[in-house]
Design brief:
Length: 296
């Protein structure tokens, strides 16, 4: 019996392609209908797109909340409706008064847990419809602020009116909103002219393959295994008896230091992922592991 075709494929998405375009290509390359991704990238954005294949689509939920890192460029003095270069300029304001120190001085306002209004060209739903669909149809879109986590943000390039940034942030952050709001905070307007995702959790853009460089004939040799997909999750190697417990979804006790509620990737001696388990109870040095997403 052949091994199931499943795993994680890291793609360096080019500008102009949608995330679904990449999913559609992966279906063709892998000859499978079961394909999903862990976090959308806008058509104008480039960079790391993590694509799950086969049964690993069930594991996406353990990746979507991973922190992400982006590089992005902001052009001061010009605002667009979309927040990037997808739409035309709708407002201009003077920018020459803005010094690097002014921008650095406001970055603390955009660090930690902040309230952020998504761009009108976004996938946020309003009465069952996507905001970007309403905006493109010419309807007025009013979105409410939502909390997001910004772990770190810094200037990496200063060539006004263009400013380059790096941001490390939590899931749900809109980089286009950061570009808009930082510009407003220093007394002008602005929009993102480049957005590139360079990291998702433990996965780096250097590991990704561009669509042009994909070896279609040997596609599966470029796919990370299910266990590698859970790189950021603690691992536990189960013995033969525990493997049987896992297969049947039975809880079992082991020595460990996981916190109650923490996820653990259970695997066998050959490195095959058996299940995603949760630490469900503690008793001294003992921890109870409960298989929640069984993969065998």
């Amino acid at each position: 019996m052949s091994e199931p075709r499943e795993g994680l494929f890291l793609v360096d998405k080019p500008v102009g392609k949608t995330s679904f375009d990449i999913v559609r290509q992966c279906r063709k390359w892998g000859d499978t209908r079961k394909v999903g991704h862990a976090g959308t990238l806008d058509p104008k954005a480039t960079g790391l797109l993590a694509v799950a294949l086969g049964r690993c689509t069930k594991l996406i939920q353990y990746m979507v909340d991973e922190p992400k890192s982006y590089l992005f460029d902001v052009k001061l003095g010009e605002a667009t409706e979309s927040g990037d270069t997808e739409s035309g300029v709708v407002d201009t304001r003077p920018w020459a008064h803005v010094e690097r120190e002014d921008v650095e001085a406001v970055l603390d306002e955009f660090t930690g847990r902040i309230e952020q209004v998504p761009p009108v060209y976004s996938a946020v739903k309003i009465d069952g419809k996507r905001a970007h669909e309403l905006a493109r149809a010419g309807e007025e879109v009013e979105l409410q602020p939502r909390p997001v986590d910004i772990h770190a943000i810094e200037i990496q390039r200063w060539e006004p009116p263009s400013v380059g940034f790096r941001v490390d942030c939590g899931s749900g952050t809109y980089v286009r909103s950061l570009a808009r709001d930082i510009s407003l905070a220093v007394g002008t307007v602005g929009h993102a002219t480049m957005i590139r995702r360079i990291r998702i959790g433990e996965f780096d853009i250097e590991e990704a393959v561009t669509p042009q460089a994909v070896d279609e004939e040997h596609f599966w040799s470029q796919v990370l295994s299910p266990l590698q997909m859970l790189r950021g999750v603690p691992r536990y190697e189960a013995d033969a008896s525990q493997c049987e417990d896992i297969r049947h979804g039975r809880k079992f006790w082991v020595e460990g230091s996981w916190d109650e509620g923490e996820w653990v990737a259970g695997h066998d001696a050959d490195g095959r992922l058996l299940a995603v388990m949760v630490c469900s109870d503690e008793r001294g040095e003992q921890r109870q592991l409960w298989p929640r997403r069984v993969m065998v």
